[in-house]
Design a protein that fits this description.
It is built from four helices and eleven strands. It is an alpha+beta fold. The chain folds into two domains: 67 residues, no CATH class; 136 residues, Thiol Ester Dehydrase, Chain A, CATH 3.10.129.10. The radius of gyration is 16 Å and the shape is globular. This is Thioesterase-like superfamily protein.
Length: 218
């Protein structure tokens, strides 16, 4: 058994952990190159959580569970940094996501990954990690999260939350390295929405990739 705590800085929706970051914290404790994490309930912030046999609990309440993962789609292709910068200029959000650690534009201590449309079903954003946080695999999982959500249709009008995420991290960027995050929409089935993301380094090396299932809120 291991105790995991999600610091308050790493919120997604108000008062709960960013799904990608929470998933990344579980993935740190697995040996597989690709890991799938299913999010069952919001992860409370600044609270000791129990990680036991790949499952994260708040008391007896199941927060998330992990298993070996496999990808079903091709990795999203890279987008030039200058194209991503232009796309980010048209980024839109709402009150629900404005303070998210990853994509929130109303806070100065987040990742500020603000994806905008490149073409139909594809979004991109520049990202330059800084020295205020450890640049580790969990941070890459966080960066791979939100751009997938912003690639799916109707996120502003009918918000969805992360249900599951499969990801693999191949390398870590340096502090100050100009990276690009790309998100692709891969269809809708009822309340489920599917997406994929990738993070590329300054030399266009693939740092990480992910696939997601989002659940539309009722």
């Amino acid at each position: 058994m291991t105790i995991v705590q999600i610091p308050g800085r790493f919120n997604g929706p108000p008062n709960s952990g960013n799904g990608g970051y929470v998933a990344g914290r579980l993935a740190e404790h697995r040996d597989e190159s690709a890991v799938t994490v299913m999010l069952r309930n919001p992860a409370p912030l600044d609270t000791p959580l129990r990680l036991d046999d790949g499952k994260l609990f708040d008391g007896e309440r199941l927060i998330a569970e992990s298993r070996a993962g496999a990808f079903e789609r091709d990795v999203p292709g890279s987008v030039p940094r200058e194209v991503a910068e232009v796309a980010a200029g048209s980024y839109e959000t709402n009150d629900m996501f404005a303070h998210c650690f990853v994509c929130g534009n109303a806070r100065g201590d987040g990742l500020r990954i603000e994806p905008g449309p490149v073409r139909e079903g594809v979004v991109a954003a520049p990202w330059t990690p800084d020295e205020t946080l450890p640049i580790d695999a969990a941070l890459l999982w966080a960066a791979l999260d939100c751009p997938g959500g912003w690639s799916v249709p109707g996120m502003l009008e009918q918000p969805a939350l992360l249900g599951s995420m499969t990801a693999a991290v191949f390398g870590l960027p340096e502090a100050g390295e100009p990276c690009v995050v790309v998100g692709e929409s891969h269809g809708v089935q009822g309340r489920k929405l599917y997406s994929a993301t990738a993070v590329y380094g300054a030399d266009e090396r693939l740092l990480g990739r992910a696939e997601h299932i989002w659940i539309r809120l009722k």
